[in-house]
Design a protein that fits this description.
3-stranded parallel sheet, 168 residues, 2 domains, single chain, elongated, 4-stranded mixed sheet, alpha/beta
Length: 168
């Protein structure tokens, strides 16, 4: 009987898995419209009072996105004021939709990585993910890996789609 050989494990193929960098922090959003009159009108005195009364401790060590779910036209200072309250408890605060937290995180994280281990090697950008890695993270990873890798495929070793091959 022939021995089964795992040629993938024996190859120089390297896997770049974005799940390895998935954050553990709780991510949430704060909808500013909750403090607006009928969800649209900012009355400064009422807005400031509502912020003072809000329980900011619930955002302890979380990543928070400040957004407005209505078409209200907010003065520039309104989300900044909300952020000033969050600075005491939250780990990270952005202006934008909650899903933007992961996009921005991956952009920052992938900028900081050392890609020298992937120099002139074939790389698989792992595609099957159990965590909600944003598509934008794959594009950022591709941009960095393409500068160093010999070739890049997407997916799994058993069914990878070729994306890039360095010219000779």
């Amino acid at each position: 009987m022939d021995e089964i050989v795992n040629r993938v494990a024996q190859s120089a193929l390297m896997v770049f898995d974005l799940e390895d960098y998935f954050p553990k922090q709780v991510r949430t959003g704060i909808d500013v419209s909750q403090w607006l009159y009928e969800g649209f009108l900012l009355k400064e005195k009422d807005f400031r009072e509502a912020l003072k009364q809000h329980d900011w401790s619930q955002y302890q060590d979380q990543w928070v996105a400040i957004y407005c779910s209505t078409d209200a036209i907010l003065p520039t200072w309104a989300p900044i004021l909300v952020a000033s309250y969050l600075t005491e408890t939250a780990d990270w605060v952005i202006l934008g939709q909650p899903e933007s937290l992961l996009d921005l995180y991956y952009q920052k994280k992938l900028e900081q990585l050392d890609y020298s281990d992937y120099q002139d090697k074939p790389v698989i950008l792992k595609g099957c993910s159990k965590k909600p890695v944003p598509e934008s993270a794959y594009i950022v990873a591709m941009q960095h890996l393409q500068k160093v890798a010999k070739s890049i495929m997407f997916g799994e070793a058993c069914s990878a789609v070729p994306l890039f091959k360095k010219g000779k």
